[in-house]
Amino acid sequence: MVRQSRAGWYYQPKEKDDAPLLRRMEEIAATRVRYGFWRIYVLLRREGWLINHKRVYRLYRQAGLNLRRKRPRRRKAAAHRLERVVLAAPNQCWSMDFVADALFDGRRFRALTVVDNFTKECLAIEVDAQFKGKDVVAVMERLKHQRGLSQRIQTDNGSEFISLALALNQNAEFSSSGRTS
User: Fold this and answer.
1) Which of 34, 85, 93, 141 could form a disulfide with 152 if both were Cys (CB 3.0 to 4.6 A apart)?
2) What is the pLDDT of residues 103-128, one digit of tens each?
3) Angle of CA points 48, 54, 56, to nearest 5°
4) In this entry, which stretches build a coiled coil (predicted)?
5) Is 106 in the same domain as 156?
6) Which CATH number goes with the domain that contains 152?
7) Residue 11 resides in a domain
8) From CA 36, how far away is CA 102, in angstroms rounded?
9) What distance in Å separates the CA atoms of residue 37 and residue 44, rounded to the nearest whole number?
10) Does 100 share its domain with 163?
């Protein structure tokens, strides 16, 4: 009358024990901190677990293993920050950075500043409308002939500091003199 099979009427659901699977997921998440649920699922399948990705996702969320979607920038930068070196003499550490401003008529300009961190002396200020890596290399070459090389140069990751021209010159200079930046 209802057109339902007898097997469905008498079916008894079987309880699945998720404890061993959950323990293994927690072990993987503890050793591989940056792995999300898909990578954990793939690792479990490689280990021979015959499981559905939906079950893994449900247990992953239930155990609170989900990764933060966006990491706080301040903490991320602080985690990779090196300790400050105690300076004892000039030319141990220089800092390089760019400053940007605009003239009264709206034209923009940039200034490259190089400062000795021990003496707080400004070693160079170069002003131009735009800077390329080769311009930074020219300023550093001039400073090398005037004062010698610094043991360490601190910069941010600006496009001028990660250019090919600066990298080639830096590798040639520092590998021949044995200094690091």
Assistant:
1) 93
2) 999 999 999 999 999 999 999 999 99
3) 50
4) none
5) yes
6) 3.30.420.10
7) no
8) 46
9) 10
10) yes
Q: Are residues 43 and 103 in the same domain?
A: no
For residue 173, give both structure tokens.
């200079």
Contacts within 8 Å (CB) and 24+ apart, 98-101: 98/131, 98/158, 98/160
Domain identity same for 103 and 50: no
Quick check: 114 and 122 in contact, CB under 8 A?
A: yes
User: Which ranges in the chain belong to alpha helices (H)?
Assistant: 6-9, 19-31, 37-47, 53-62, 73-79, 133-147, 164-177
Is there a single domain that holds both residue 106 and residue 56? no
75-111: per-residue pLDDT in tens? 555 555 567 778 889 999 999 999 999 999 999 999 9
Total structural domains within the chain: 2
Write out the residue range of the structural domain in which residue 173 sits. 93-177
Whether residues 172 and 102 share a domain: the answer is yes
Q: Read out DSSP for 48-73?
A: T----HHHHHHHHHHTT-PPPSS--H
Which residues contact residue 9 at a Cβ distance below 8 angstroms, ignoring those fewer than 6 apart? none
